[in-house]
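Q&A log
Question type: sequence-to-structure
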Amino acid sequence: MAAKKKAAKKKAVKKAASKKKVGKKKAAKPVVAAVPGSGSGSKNDRFVIIMAGGKGERFWPVSREATPKQLIKILGDKSFLQEAVERCLPLVPLRNIIIITNKVQAPEVCRQLPKLPKENVVAEPVGRDTCAAVTLGAAIVGARSTTGTMAVLPADHVIPDEKKFQKVLEDSFDLASRGQALVTIGIKPDKPETGYGYIKFGKLLPKPKGGKKYRTKFYVADAFKEKPDYDTALEYVNSGQYRWNAGMFIWSFVAVAEALQKHQPEMDAACHRWFEAAAKGKLDRVLKKEYPAIKKISIDFALMEKAQNVVVADGAFMWDDLGNWNALARHVKNDREGNAALAKFVHVDAARNIIFDGRTTNRTPIAVVGLRDSILVQTDDAVLLAHKSQSQKIKLLVKKLGEHPKFKKLV
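Response status: OK
Response body:
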């Protein structure tokens, strides 16, 4: 029976990847608007892939290679990864949540998520950007259910209103399960942010025939834009036709298999091999052999900017990427002088600073005189002092520390 089941899965993935593709862009839009399918609402056929292998270098010295940003507690008593998993549990069973990380971080992931099946923590042998991680996730999902629908989510986002997020994700799951749409969640910009990519959207999609009415608005995606300069970002915000690219995707296994076959044949071939290896319980061995040779490319470049069946879900919820220390000030109550402090902080004539005490024991007051517009972070073994305008250079500082024989242990 087991052999028959594996053979059936292999046949199913080949069938999924050989279906007729969407044609030119003008013809693709109505296909997305009226995608066929059952629209299965079964939680058992939903999966979540959480990408949790980043280093979080811009949050040094609190974030380190073994315990990066997504695995540390900054804004509460849970790590960003733990919060990301809990946000999905009302929609997806824990056994269907898969964490893609790396070998250095995998032990801490398992420690923080003790109820997650160990086989659901998958360690990449080396980092190969998001397309490889998505392809790996698709292969694992396909090996478990060729009729499955998967969400690909980052591990380090801040989403205060979980219920609104869950509603958008639930509607996106339903739409993606009905056919070939590649759904991405776009966040309405509230300022001209130059650190995010943008998505230009077009026509509003009608609800699927025979389907429920969604609370979430879905639009045809017209174009993906890289991180703009300030003036361009301002144009995007004022036009009302753009959303921030939050890096959250929802699609069926069939849809992503077809997209890989059409736009990334090498990744498609890898997906087939990893699918079979996962079904046979040999995935780790195959990844160790093959993964270093996989090309580095983001999922945006590889698929989203090429596909004609992309749909933007209107992410009507509060969201923050929390990409560096400057972003912390948006989530911490500031004092009268604009200082955002998570520490025993005493100052004279200090203003608009970010102060964070990451020490685990012997926490003492951090006293400051006359400091302005700066970042001050203290841990058990390192101190960071930087001007807020130079926060992007912390990544360069981490690189320099890693090259120094006395300081590389701090990375």
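Response note: Residues 21 and 132 are 22 Å apart (CA to CA).
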